[in-house]
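task queued by scheduler; priority normal; single chain, no ligands, no partner chains; default sampling; output format set to C-alpha cells
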Amino acid sequence: MEISEDLLTQPLEEDTSELSPRPVIEEEGEGYLLPEMRYPPISLQHDTVIFNEDMSMRSVHGTGLFMEQDRILTKHVMRYIDCSPFPETSKVVAITRAGKHIVWQQAVRSCVPAAISMIALDRGKLFLAREISYPLTSDTARIRYIQKAGFVPIKHDLLGEVVQKARTLECLMRSGPGLLHLNHPSLMSHMVVLDEISLKQERITIRDPYHGYMITVGLFPFLNWVGASFIELADPQ
C-alpha cells in the first residue's frame, strides 16, 4: 500500500484522556483462559542442542523471555482448539474471543512459520503444521512458507528513527495484521504478528509465537526492538 509522507511527519497528538496506559485483566470463562507462561519445546531432530550432565537438553540459542510481566498491559484470554494434527490437549493452537488465532512454535527457531500460520488460520488459508517444528534459516525459506500458506508477501522497509517507524506501522496496519521483524535483546532475530499499534493510546497488540500468547504492551521498550521490515500478507490476484 502507498503511504503518504505527510502522515509520517505529522506531530504526535497528546492523549489527554489518561496519562499512561492502564493494565486490563480479561475475564476467563466459557473455555477461555489466561495464557500460561511456556517456552518452545526443544527438538533433538530440528534444534541445535547441548546435553547437560543429567542428559537433559538445552538449546544453544538459550531460553529468553519476550516481555517482562510488569510491562504487559493485557494478556488476552484464549481457548485451545483442535487443529490437525494437533489436538486441543496439545495446546499448540488457540483462538481469542476476538477470533484471532494463536500458534505456539514447536522449535526454538520456528517463529516465522508459526507467525505465518496465525494469519493463515485467521483468513482460512493453509496451516503450516509441519513447518512450525522446523527452524527457519533463510529469507528464501520465509518467502516459500508465505507462498505455501496461500499469500503473496509484500515487504515494507521500516526506515528512520523509532517514532517514524511507528508512524509507518500505523499506516500499514490499515491493510490488517502482518509480520513484524524484531531485534529482541534475548531472542535475537524474532518474528511476531502485529495486530494493532496506536501512538495516541500508547499501546501495541501482538501475537508472539515463542510463548504462544496475544498481549498488549506499552510503546516502550517494544519500539526499540522493531527491526527493518514489516511483511504484508496479500491474497494472490
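post-processing summary
- The radius of gyration is 18 Å.
- Confidence is low (pLDDT under 50) at residues 11-19.
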